[in-house]
Design goal:
Elements: H1 2-20, H2 22-42, H3 46-71, H4 74-79, H5 81-87, H6 92-122, H7 130-151, H8 159-188, H9 195-222
Length: about 220
């Protein structure tokens, strides 16, 4: 039953995104503009661009996740559906998992597009271990989605909390961004040294964020 609830929530959110195209119309242009601005600002030094490309890539993913997290609950808040979720007998943790899954899919698509921009614009090599790079991306995006889907609920409870969303997300998600950036940089430089440690750190934070989200989502919904 909980799995069906999570699936229904995820499918509903993804259908709304396909219909409204908010990520395509707002989040993706923002991420692309940021990457282009840094590319032109840093000049034609290809070696420098390759060195900073992983950090810029995950920075774009971070800011995209903040914007998506805010938009995740806007439709429910404006239509009074949050109260419906609160009164529903459905498992609130399953609702959270559905929200996180929908955010994960959207962020993964956005990341793939921005990665293509970075590869073309900065000449970033994908390295000799594309499987490990893909695993890094999946674990990093999972961490951003898990935390953003939890804290995004706070953004629809008033202007103060909406303004404070980046302040809440950025410090908490810093370990994920650091680990994902270091792992991506190592792999794109053609090495796998220390990758296991970074991937383990990402997996640990993903599990912690998902567990916390499952436990406290219902309480935040009642607040």
């Amino acid at each position: 039953m909980s799995l069906r609830v999570a699936e229904a929530i995820a499918v509903k959110d993804l259908r709304m995104e396909v219909r409204n195209r908010s990520a395509v119309s707002t989040v993706l242009p923002f991420a692309a503009t940021m990457l282009l601005a840094f590319g032109f600002a840093l000049g034609p030094d290809r070696l420098l661009l390759i060195q900073i490309a992983p950090g810029l890539l995950w920075l774009a993913a971070l800011f995209s996740s903040v914007e998506l997290s805010h938009r995740l609950y806007q439709a429910e808040a404006s239509g009074g559906a949050l109260e419906g979720l609160l009164l529903s007998p459905a498992d609130k943790g399953a609702v959270y998992f559905g929200k996180a899954a929908a955010t994960f899919v959207q962020l993964l698509v956005l990341f793939a597009v921005t990665l293509g921009i970075v590869v073309v614009l900065f000449g970033l090599p994908l390295g000799p271990a594309p499987g490990l790079l893909l695993l890094t991306v999946v674990l990093g995006i999972a961490g951003l989605s898990a935390l953003g889907s939890l804290l995004g609920l706070l953004a629809v409870r008033g202007r103060t909390r909406q303004a404070a969303l980046p302040v809440l997300v950025l410090p908490l998600v810093s370990p994920v961004i650091i680990a994902a950036t270091r792992a991506t940089a190592t792999l794109t430089q053609g090495s796998t040294t220390g990758i296991g440690g970074w991937l383990g750190l990402l997996a640990a934070f993903d599990a912690a964020f998902l567990a916390i989200g499952y436990l406290v989502f219902g309480h935040l919904l009642e607040d």
